[in-house]
Design a protein that fits this description.
Elements lengths: L2 H18 L6 H15 L7 H19 L5 H5 L3 H24 L4 H14 L1 H11 L3 H28 L4 H11 L3 H11 L1 H16 L1 H15 L13 H15 L4 H23 L4 H7 L1 H24 L5
Keywords: Cell membrane, Membrane, Transmembrane, Transmembrane helix
Family: Belongs to the UPF0324 family.
InterPro entries: UPF0324_pro
């Protein structure tokens, strides 16, 4: 029965949207925290599980498709070849370094892939997108999301401080924030703390990282088909349907056929759907379980954060944004 669980997530998403209007925190982060608070402070009835699963998977994927409407290829390409190279390096090096470090730590492949995607691309949304491709266990998904929220939140004060420490100007600090910080919402918070110019550069660079979701998911899907499936019936798609939808939405935005009011409504719907999904995912974040069984995952998350900070710092030094 979908009703109770889905309704709970929809209400959680709506509350998060309203709270974000009065708090300097994104609706997505509020939703994850609300769901996690419920999970850790009060019992979650088993009857909610089917509806929560729909919210945290199907609604999430629709939200990711609509996220594509925020991306214009012309804006991304306008960053220049050097900055785009830093984006690709930040995602690629962090992703593969996370897989390698996770293997050394003895983590299962699905857990490694979830953390690698979340920390290199776009946080909880990338974790959830990867989950559909690798068929991870729910506790692995919850662990990865809990860690990306924890370390991404730490990046909000840390990234601007590091930018100032190494002597970056405002725009370079924005580039560093966008290339290193995990969630779009966390990038907005960190960039906004530095200044208007930093915020604009940070968000654009971060959205370029979000664009990497499609090719990375295609690569993961192809790998899982070749290495971890034995029959055609069980093989995951090379490109999940929602990733294809994300690409189409991005192309629609690039062509410019949708008026701004429609894009504004789509952005609101996207935020609501993602907040609803994040509330559902938050219901799976059990801190006691994470700290009891996720010690190696915690080490990997810390290592992935260090890697992406170092790559982003080096890249910003070598290819600073054009003034």
């Amino acid at each position: 029965m979908l009703g109770p669980g889905l309704a709970a997530c929809l209400v959680g998403g709506a509350i998060s949207l309203l709270a974000a209007q009065v708090l300097p925190v994104s609706a997505l982060l509020i939703a994850i925290l609300l769901g996690a608070l419920w999970r850790n402070l009060f019992p979650v009835p088993d009857a909610l599980a089917p509806g929560v699963a729909v919210a945290s998977k199907r609604l999430l994927r629709i939200g990711i498709v609509l996220l594509g409407l925020q991306l214009s290829l012309s804006t991304i390409l306008g960053l220049g070849a050097g900055v785009l190279a830093v984006v690709v390096a930040s995602v690629g090096i962090t992703f593969f370094a996370s897989l390698l470090i996770g293997k050394w730590l003895g983590l299962e492949l699905p857990q490694r892939l979830l953390i690698a995607a979340g920390f290199s691309i776009c946080g909880a949304a990338a974790v959830a997108a990867t989950e559909g491709t690798v068929k991870a266990k729910q506790e692995q998904v919850a662990t990865a999301i809990g860690l990306v929220v924890l370390f991404g939140t730490l990046m909000i004060p840390l990234a601007p401080a590091l930018g100032a420490l190494v002597g970056f100007d405002e725009e370079a600090t924005g580039m560093f924030i966008g290339a290193s910080t995990h969630e779009v919402a966390q990038v907005v918070a960190a960039g906004g703390a530095v200044g208007t110019s930093a915020l604009a550069v940070a968000v654009t660079v971060k959205l370029a990282r979000v664009l990497m979701l499609a090719p990375v998911m295609a690569g993961v899907g192809l790998y899982m088909r070749r290495k971890h499936s034995v029959t055609a019936d069980t093989k995951p798609p090379v490109v999940p349907l929602f990733v294809a939808g994300f690409i189409v939405a991005m192309l629609v935005r690039t062509v410019g056929i949708l008026p701004e009011p429609v894009l504004d409504v789509a952005a609101l719907i996207q935020t609501f759907l993602l907040a609803t999904a994040m509330f559902g995912l938050g219901l799976g974040v059990h801190l006691r379980t994470i700290f009891k069984t996720g010690g190696r995952s915690l080490v990997l998350a810390a290592a992935a954060t260090v890697v992406i900070i170092l790559v982003a710092l080096a890249g910003t030094f070598i290819f600073p944004p054009a003034g």
